[in-house]
Amino acid sequence: MSSILHIETSTDVCSVAISKDGVCLFERVDHEGHNHAVKAGVFVDEALSYADAQLMDLDAVAVSCGPGSYTGLRVGVSMAKGVCYGRNLPLISVPTLKLLCVPVLLREKVKEEDALLCPMIDARRMEVYAQLFDRSLREIRPTQADVVDADTYRQWLDERPVYFFGNGAAKCMETINHPNGHLIEGVDPLARWMFPLAERKFFGQEFEDVAYFVPFYLKDFVAKMPKKLL
Question: For the segment 106-165, what is each residue's pLDDT rounded down to a tens digit?
């Protein structure tokens, strides 16, 4: 049995959820954009208040670890670490691209046994953070920052169906332009989809070092001057 607080802030969606034995008992979601610094703290506070009111002892905190928004990842991981320190809980990290695959598989969006899953997170312009998995979530190609052209995924598309999804996928489909390439819309990395991945790590005792854990940024942060100051 496990009760886990889940925090997801790696993209433009901010969500927090509590699961107990894989069942969602509490959930807050914000789709309005990059409000993580404001929304995440409120949602986490509400989640902890809910757990306390239900006399629920949390067993762990799970957080999406990237890649994704630099600011979002920092906010989410900072929140998760704060709860871990305050309540003496272990920390679980969930890769965001693998997280995106969970609703696709649970909703049975992919029928072909040999199909590949390609979750994509928007990294601006024609660049995306992407990874390739088979249906058992075995990694076929590691995470990369891809500047997408017609040949980026051709070696896999020429062999079998590949399903693209996530907030970076739609902008790439016309460029990919392959009969084996399929777009699945409306797939967000919500905290509730972290449940099966986090529980597997919990029971396997795969915990992070709370003091030294850092998110998977993939690329270095580059500070920019606000346009109104240029």
Answer: 999 999 999 999 999 999 878 999 999 999 999 999 999 999 999 999 999 999 999 999
Mean pLDDT value across residues 79-99:
98
What is the value of pTM for the model shown? 0.92
Per-residue HEC secondary structure of 133-171 comes to: ECCCCCEEEEEEEEECCCCCCHHHHCCCCEEEECCCCHH
Taking alpha carbons only, the member of 79, 47, 23, 37 closest to residue 213 is 79
The Cα 199–Cα 2 span in angstroms is 8
β-pair partners for 119: 165
What is the per-residue pLDDT across 163-192, written as a single tens digit (0 to 9) for each?
999 999 999 999 999 999 999 999 999 999
What are the DSSP calls for the chain, one per residue? --EEEEEE-SSS-EEEEEEETTEEEEEEEE-SSS-HHHHHHHHHHHHHHHHHHTT----EEEEE--SS-HHHHHHHHHHHHHHHHHHT--EEEE-HHHHHHHHHHHTT----TT-EEEEEEE-STTEEEEEEE-TT--EEEEEEEEE--TTTTHHHHTTS-EEEESTTTGGGHHHH--TTEEEE-S----GGGGHHHHHHHHHTT--B-TTT-----SS-------GGG-
Structure tokens at 25: 């008992």
Alpha-carbon torsion, ordered 97, 100, 106, 109, to 10 deg: -100
